[in-house]
Design brief:
Length: 120
């Protein structure tokens, strides 16, 4: 009986509570995107407009590519570099975490943890 109970406990799916640090990081990332007005080119929900989708870019590319494009830009395609912007440099991990959570479908558009996802 004890062996069955032990097997059942270890076979049960992991239940993970929402990590407040992760939520705070996503919130900071979302806020940095808003402050830098990335939506003016990448669309209100950062899923593409005049410039490509940041969500797809994170989903389909590497972290190294993301860092390079954000910090150094891609001038030929109209993307400025933000290496000289202290807020972007300081919150680069948070910006990536927010976009990655969007790409994975962990959160919807808009402010993470807001009363209504998609509402800004």
């Amino acid at each position: 009986m004890l062996a069955s109970l032990t097997a059942l406990i270890f076979a049960a799916p992991d239940v993970v509570a929402a990590d407040p640090d992760q939520s705070a990081q996503r919130e900071r990332g979302w806020n940095a995107l808003r402050v830098m007005d990335c939506a003016r080119c990448h669309g209100r929900d950062h899923d593409g407009w005049a410039a490509p989708s940041l969500i797809a870019g994170v989903r389909d590319g590497s972290r190294e590519r993301f860092d390079r494009w954000v910090l150094d830009g891609d001038i030929e395609r109209g993307m400025p570099g933000y290496r000289s912007q202290p807020r972007v440099v300081a919150e680069l991990d948070a910006i990536y975490a927010y976009l990655l959570a969007r790409a994975r479908g962990d959160i919807g558009p808009g402010r993470p943890g807001g009363a209504a996802q998609g509402a800004e």
